[in-house]
Design brief:
The structure holds 2 protein chains of 2 kinds. By secondary structure, chain A is an alpha+beta fold. Chain A is built from 18 helices and 19 strands. Chain B is 28% helix and 25% strand. Chain B contains 12 helices and 17 strands. In chain B, a hairpin with a 4-residue loop joins strand 3 and strand 4. Classes of the chains: A alpha+beta, B alpha+beta.
């Protein structure tokens, strides 16, 4: 099959020639067929072909690429494993797509200081696998951990099911080696605690590839817990399940993980992986507890008591690794499981204060009826991170737009009740409009200034994460602060 | 009382007049950092009070001028605490000062630092704009993490108005063991204990004695008595010891000479042993009393991938080690972004910030 040829400007041809001359030939991918596998990330409705894809193998090659991009003023979109759900790694037309996937070596494990030094393309789970012989693991475990890369985790400040107790990426990364847009090396953080100066490490984590390119990551490792037990509790209503979550936290228990799924999500997961979830329950809670044997025994009893008091219909306790893994499998496979129920689904990622859960779910249900689109809910209940999955069919006219509109209303509701438009998936291109709801013009402007402090030409991942003020003004859905008209500096049309 | 409008006017006026401000609340930590190059003062002592406290949601939002002790009492009533165990530098110390200086206590390596417990901030930037970043939910990745950037910035990037902090249940029980050890063995053991799945919550090495604190429900601590060994401190004694360590009231800190705060990778072998030292954080934090040449102390610490801060000294003009060139330039650009007229605590951190 003959593919349509891509057309390059003279400047682009000069750049590509310089790139080809500077790197071994297999590092650079050109041509529609080679580029297509990179046209989107996990947010597959938004596709674009990059100018080219480069796959450097070490820091020096990344540096070479960045310096050429600076010389030719070409923009750069970094990409890890491409599993992101907000379009953060979506290519930008005319920009280089910089894949860090080949920089996938675990460089060293330091058992004495309990750290691992790894390249950005190392898969999240591979760090724990490498640390395991020393009795350690890397705590943040996003559901995509078998595939997603640590570099991408840094870009998104990824969480996972255990972050209630063990924190997000920002709590578990000690140091980064990054390259700035012009190829300069920066060392942020370190093994010694509390560095003098500004905490640029914290600023960098979650910056979605807009401030620099991560070429090395040093993570903190934790000892593998002695024992782990998972409780599965079934509830007749989502509200009672939500109350049980609050009751557990109020009792002073911080579980390692505390997850909720609603009826549709339970049924989807059960059909997919047969985890033995109660199909007739309106909601289930998965509560993981870890610790020494004596402590754990007492904790399990305590939590079991709370769950019963809160009206759980049934409680299953998984003590052996296989049953625990099976119970988690249903949760971790919830997204693909829901994916089997409809041609397409749109995964949202808002956070809310736990106590507002019942009313938020109720509102989502109302909108679901209004839009005629079913919603399955999976929820990192312990830390208030809601993942409504809106089911739709892209082939039916108007459904994509309806799903997007529905999703934006959910995110606006999250902000309204005191939460955030994204808990762990990032803004990317997907939630740019919702950023206008969460932040004022002055706040967004401050973020643009921070961006310029790192990347004055704005060449790293342009158009992502922080919307322009014009976009917000045109959208009209704006943040009103203290009764003042938002974006007063912009003309109204 | 909410005086943010008044504070905002003051910053706006100062910005218009390009008149630098020295930001203060309790002024208990004015020994720390460089002298601020400003005549006018921005006083946060009246900007006090709890804005929102939801024990079941595990967060508190508090005005920056609120006294640390008062905040801790309010949390204790609900059986909760700030898990980073902030040091108190006297009754007047405020939560804003703790966050601005980025000070964490003995629990830091095990429970996390100040910045790990900060969920959101409201600040005034150098233009006098009232800005809110982060929030009070545990997970929030919308936009850049400008809240954590404020921790340790000592007010040079923004005036802290409100802080949302994660709070946690107070552990039911603590056990503190004391053992006589040589320095190298103490470092090794502190690092061995933290590599085990045990509820270690503080460690220190003072005067030839290794102190290990474990915090958990009674059932989790039962097995440790036999396993750890050494003398078990009586609860009152233990509380007193860790409190004095946290607040830097142990006799080590009162002995006059300049006090250095060395931070190194925790397993670093003993160095600068000719000077009195006190160790915390599993070996990651080493207090040093020495009037030796600053360059020598900094160089020896840097060789070990650490950094040396001249914590308490008369006429402390260079408390913080110089930053590498690329980082220094980036710091200056970040400062420029947040405070273009250099009116917020200029010079407190570095001369050009």
């Amino acid at each position: 099959m003959r593919v349509e040829e891509l057309i390059y400007t003279q400047a682009q041809q000069d750049f590509l020639r310089a790139l080809a001359a500077a790197l071994p030939s297999e590092r650079v991918r050109l041509g529609r067929e080679s580029l297509q596998p990179y046209e989107c990330d996990g947010l597959s409705v938004l596709c674009e072909l990059p100018l080219c894809v480069v796959l450097p193998q070490d820091r020096e090659e990344v540096q070479t690429i960045l310096r050429l991009c600076q010389r030719f003023q070409v923009a750069v979109v970094p990409r890890g494993a491409g599993t992101g759900l907000s379009g953060g790694a979506r290519p930008v037309a005319g920009a280089v797509l910089l894949s860090l996937a080949r920089m996938n070596r675990v460089l060293s494990i330091d058992p004495e200081n309990r750290t691992a030094r790894v390249q950005p393309g190392v898969r999240n789970l591979a760090i724990s696998e490498a640390a395991r012989p020393h009795g350690f693991y890397y705590a943040p475990d996003p559901s995509s951990q078998i595939a997603c890369s640590i570099g991408g985790n840094v870009a998104e400040n990824s969480g996972g099911v255990h972050c209630l107790k063990y924190g997000l990426t920002v709590h578990n990364v000690l140091a980064l080696e990054v390259l700035t847009a012009d190829g300069e090396i920066l060392h942020l953080g370190g093994l010694a605690p509390d560095l003098p100066g500004y905490d640029l490490l914290a600023l960098f984590i979650g910056s979605e590839g807009l401030l620099g390119i991560v070429v090395e990551v040093t993570v903190r490792l934790l000892p593998v817990p002695e024992n782990t037990i998972v409780l599965l509790a079934a509830f007749a209503s989502v509200c009672t399940a939500a109350d049980a979550v609050s009751a557990i936290i109020a009792a002073g228990v911080i579980p390692a993980g505390l997850e909720m799924m609603d009826r549709l999500a339970i049924q989807a997961a059960e059909d997919f992986v047969h985890a033995g979830y109660p199909r007739d329950a309106a909601a289930i809670l998965l509560c993981e507890l870890d610790g020494g044997e004596a402590e754990l025994g007492q904790r399990v009893e305590q939590v079991e008591g709370i769950l019963r008091d809160q009206g759980a219909d049934s409680i299953r306790i998984a003590r052996d690794p296989d049953t625990r893994a099976l119970l988690w499998k249903g949760r971790k496979a919830a997204f693909p499981a829901v994916g089997r129920m409809a041609p397409d689904y749109y995964c949202m990622d808002g956070t809310i204060p736990r106590c507002r859960l019942a009313e938020v779910l109720e509102q989502i249900e109302k909108w679901s009826a209004e839009y005629g689109l079913a919603v399955a809910n999976v929820f990192h209940a312990g830390d208030g991170n809601l993942h409504p999955l809106i089911l739709y069919d892209a082939n039916l006219p108007g459904q994509i737009a309806a799903a997007e509109s529905f999703g934006q209303r959910i995110l606006a509701l999250c902000v309204e009740v005191g939460g955030s438009i994204t808990g762990e998936h990032g803004v990317g291109v997907e939630k740019l409009d919702s950023m206008c709801v969460q932040f004022s013009a002055a706040e967004l402007e401050t973020m643009h200034r921070i961006k310029a402090a790192f990347d004055p030409d704005g060449r790293l991942n342009p158009g992502k994460a922080v919307p322009t003020l014009h976009r917000c003004a045109e959208l009209g859905a704006m943040h009103v602060h203290a009764g003042a008209l938002p974006f007063p500096e912009l003309e109204r049309f | 009382m909410d005086i943010s409008w008044r504070l905002q006017e003051q910053v706006q006026d100062a910005s218009a007049a390009q008149r630098p401000l020295r930001i203060r609340a309790g002024a208990t930590k004015s020994f720390y950092g460089r002298p601020v190059d400003a005549d006018a003062e921005l006083d946060l002592r009246e900007h006090t009070g709890i804005v929102d406290y939801q024990p079941a949601e595990l967060y508190v939002t508090v005005r920056a001028g609120t006294r640390l002790q008062e905040l801790q009492e309010i949390l204790a009533e609900q059986g909760q605490m700030l898990a980073f165990e902030p040091p108190g530098h006297g009754e007047d110390a405020t939560i804003g000062g703790v966050v601005a200086c980025g000070f964490s206590g003995p629990a830091r390596p095990y429970a996390g630092a100040v910045r790990d417990h900060l969920l959101g901030v409201r600040i005034l930037d150098g233009r006098g704009q009232n800005l809110h970043f982060g929030g009070h939910v545990m997970k929030n990745v919308a936009g850049y993490d400008l809240s954590r950037l404020m921790v340790g910035a000592q007010g040079t990037l923004g005036v802290l108005l409100e802080l949302s902090l994660k709070v946690l249940p107070v552990p039911l029980r603590h056990l503190t063991f004391v053992q006589e050890r040589l320095t190298a063995a103490a470092i090794r053991e502190m690092n061995q204990w933290v590599a085990q799945p045990v509820p270690l919550s503080a460690s220190a090495y003072v005067g030839g004695q290794l102190y290990l604190r474990f915090s958990a429900p009674e059932s989790a601590l039962a097995g440790l008595r036999a396993r750890v060994g050494g003398d078990l401190l009586a609860p009152d004694e233990a509380t007193q010891f860790w409190g004095q360590l946290r607040d830097q009231r142990l006799s080590f800190f009162a002995a006059g000479l300049p006090v250095w705060r060395l931070a190194v990778p925790p397993s670093t072998s003993p160095f600068l042993e000719e000077f009195p030292q006190l160790m915390e954080w599993g070996g990651g934090l080493r207090w040093l009393r020495s009037d030796a040449d600053a360059e020598q102390i900094r160089a020896q610490t840097a060789e070990r991938n650490g950094h040396a801060i001249l914590y308490r000294a008369p006429a402390n003009l260079q408390p913080f080690p110089p930053l590498p060139d690329a980082l220094r330039a980036l710091h200056a650009r970040v400062k420029q972004a947040m405070d273009p007229r250099h009116i917020l605590n200029p010079g407190r951190l570095y001369t050009d910030l």
